UniProtKB/TrEMBL annotation:
<feature type="domain" description="GRF-type">
    <location>
        <begin position="32"/>
        <end position="76"/>
    </location>
</feature>
<keyword id="KW-0472">Membrane</keyword>
<keyword id="KW-0863">Zinc-finger</keyword>
<keyword id="KW-1133">Transmembrane helix</keyword>
<dbReference type="GO" id="GO:0008270">
    <property type="term" value="F:zinc ion binding"/>
</dbReference>
<keyword id="KW-0862">Zinc</keyword>
<feature type="compositionally biased region" description="Low complexity">
    <location>
        <begin position="1"/>
        <end position="16"/>
    </location>
</feature>
<keyword id="KW-0812">Transmembrane</keyword>
<dbReference type="InterPro" id="IPR010666">
    <property type="entry name" value="Znf_GRF"/>
</dbReference>
<feature type="transmembrane region" description="Helical">
    <location>
        <begin position="109"/>
        <end position="129"/>
    </location>
</feature>
<protein>
    <recommendedName>
        <fullName>GRF-type domain-containing protein</fullName>
    </recommendedName>
</protein>
<keyword id="KW-0479">Metal-binding</keyword>
<feature type="region of interest" description="Disordered">
    <location>
        <begin position="1"/>
        <end position="29"/>
    </location>
</feature>
Length: 131
């Protein structure tokens, strides 16, 4: 989501996730301080090789303001720990999948219908040519 629509507003809000205790896992927010969706990356440093983390997509990007959002992947609470909570993103994805499946079913019916129409036309043309 680099270059997200609200990036130009340049919020200077700092992430509070940096100050959280290591024993208290947190959730990855829907949006960072820039209004963009945080991205998952892997550390390339010697001190944290291949360690996953979430950060602002505008980090280290020319001409973009970085809101300084950063969260280590191991600080993120696992999905099973969210007892009773419904993840809005998962619900949105389920609805999108259901809609796409309905569209696929409709397309399959249309293809079958058109196949029958083409077969009917071929039979009619063949019958008229024969007589």
């Amino acid at each position: 989501m680099i270059g997200c629509p609200s990036q130009g507003q340049g919020s200077s809000t700092r992430s509070t996730t940096r100050t959280r205790s290591r024993t208290r896992p947190s959730r990855v927010p829907e949006r960072c301080g820039c209004g963009c969706r945080p991205v998952l990356r892997w550390s390339g440093t010697n001190t944290n090789p291949d360690k996953p983390f979430f950060d602002c997509p505008n980090y280290n990007t020319r001409d973009k303001t970085w809101c300084e959002f950063f969260l280590w992947g191991d600080d993120v609470e696992e999905e099973e720990k969210h007892e009773g909570r419904v993840d809005a993103t998962a619900v949105d994805n389920e609805q999108r999948i259901e809609k796409l499946e309905a569209e696929v079913r409709t397309q399959k019916y249309m293809i079958q219908f058109l196949g029958i129409v083409v077969l009917f036309i071929i039979v009619v043309v063949f019958m008229t040519l024969k007589f």
